Amino acid sequence: MSSHTLPRILVVAILLSATQFSRAERLSPSLEFHPGAINGAIVTKGEKRLAVYGDPRAHTRTVDTVLATHHRRDVVWVARELVDAGAKLVVPEKERKYFEEPGKQWEDFIKIRLKDAAQQTTKMIRRPFPVSRGVTEGDTVSFSGIDIKVFDTPGFTRDAVSYLAKIDGKKVAFTGDLIYGDGKIFDLYSFQDRIPAAKIGGYHGYGSRLAELIVSLERIAELNPDLIIPARGPVIRDVQGSIKRLIGRIKAMYRNYLSTNALYWYFKEDRMKACADRILGEGANYSLMPYSHHEDLPEWVINTGTTRVIVSESGAAFLLDCGSERYIDFVKGLMKDGVVTKVEGLFVTHYHGDHTHYVQRAAEEFKCPVYSTVEYEDILEKPGAYHMPAGTPFAIKEVIGKKDGAVMKWHEYTLTFRFFPGQTLYHGALFVEKPGSKKIFFVGDAFTPSGMDDYCVLNRNLMHDDTGYFRCFNIIREMQGSKDRFYLMNEHVPYIFSYTDGQLNFLEDSYKRRRYMLSDLVPWDNANYGIDEQWAWFYPYGVETKGGKRIPFKFRFYNHSPKARDFSFKLNLPEGFKLIRGKQKVNLKGGGKTELPFVVEVAGNVKPGNYIITSDVSSKDIDLREWSEAIVTVTE
Hints:
- The model is unreliable at 1-15 and 17-21 (pLDDT under 50).
- The two termini are 15 Å apart.
- A hairpin with a 2-residue loop joins β3 and β4 (48-52).
- It is built from 13 helices and 36 strands.
- A 7-stranded mixed β-sheet has the order 1-2-3-4-5-6-7, covered by helices on one side. Strands 13-27-26-23-22-21-20 form a 7-stranded mixed β-sheet, covered by helices on one side. A 6-stranded mixed β-sheet has the order 14-15-16-17-18-19.
- The protein is globular.
- It is α+β, with helices and mostly antiparallel strands and 636 residues long.
């Protein structure tokens, strides 16, 4: 990304009710605390001034030095004005490149975003910061007779640091986003990461960096500061109690997660133990749900990879998913052998690339229609318009979106289409009934014999009563009450399986407890904000255009709060971009969703390259800066 494409922008961050009730205060003769969307801690010695994080007050006086704890743009925006005015910026050495060369980080992300399985934040800095010094464990920043010690405290980011200083006789820790208020974390999704000890990648690494967070918190507790001044939220005075409560909440939540974990089926007990040992502690007690009943597929279902082939007595076939060319070749082999005469349809369970990369190719090869439910039809046809994990760059044309509950007769089979947001928000399932045979509910990647596929928080596994796995539980119970026994089918599991009433009750009750635990763990008025990074987002997320063109966008809100809210968003546009029209405020009922259309014009002299449109979002007790982004690629 060339320097001319780096816009001067703001984006979006978050302030919660705890900060709203904080007030500016002088904590000691030399130390001021200024609350805001991001806090500012100002140390003054004579004519010299140092800021930790920055200063949220508009048009503030200059300072000599700013200390940053990590690189995320939703925090470091608060330092921009001070650094632009000449302050020296001190950053974690291991994250220095993200401050100085953010364009490279964006280039790397844009190349892989439609197949992204690493699941790291996209809250990346857009305009470079000039860095005066990079620091790491053991370093000291000296300021007017105060020695500020540096400690590596990974967790919220991989390479964050904290600072500890004795100021006017008080030992003060500046910990960034390690802890919020009385034993909370800002969100859960920021801790998704790989788990090398268990040979698990980022996509499957639910809460992985909570292990590093616990170690960092214990380190801060050992240092025994009198106060913690975090990047967000109120000053923490009960340091030991707040840290103890946070570690306890993390361990309880993770123990609950393990007990219902689909990965136990895929990765087996030794790798689950490796996960548990990292967060719960070596040899800690935890449980895994015993495998449910599972048995071989009936003869009319043929398995190949993540594709299932349903074969009619007529010889016609109906496919579920197609993520590889070899699955097409497999079906062609069935046709050559006379097992299948033709393919008459293909149902896509969800958008993930291992299920969709070759759906369009299969539709063209077999000249068959492609089906989904209406809720995720659009992401299949326009994958580039979304920012979701493990997707695909390969759009599917003319998907037939069925309404939830729609029934279709196909030869001797009855097919019922269901919106089934288990593993991801954009997910469906197909209930297949054949007279005289076992009934099978093809649920994509939603469940295994050991539990739920909820290991990637960024898949948007929402936890309202009528969303996510709670919706899935409701559908299964509804079907149990109205139909004979049926089986579940996951396309990564070579068996059909079923849960007893006791197992289903255990899964649902455990998930309800998890929701309660998450409510205690995050500071929002609804736990879903802490697991849904995209409750406020741009549609489309990525778009190509030319100079002189207009781009229609929508800004989408999901009000997870139990009460109505007034929301507003403010665009931050690159040079050469202009808002033409669009409403930017809305009142939204509790649990409601909406979208606000707007149009942006790109000037004719804008050079080819990647540009970022960003948004600030606000509501009562919410103040978001540098949060949401859309990527605009201007071509020749």
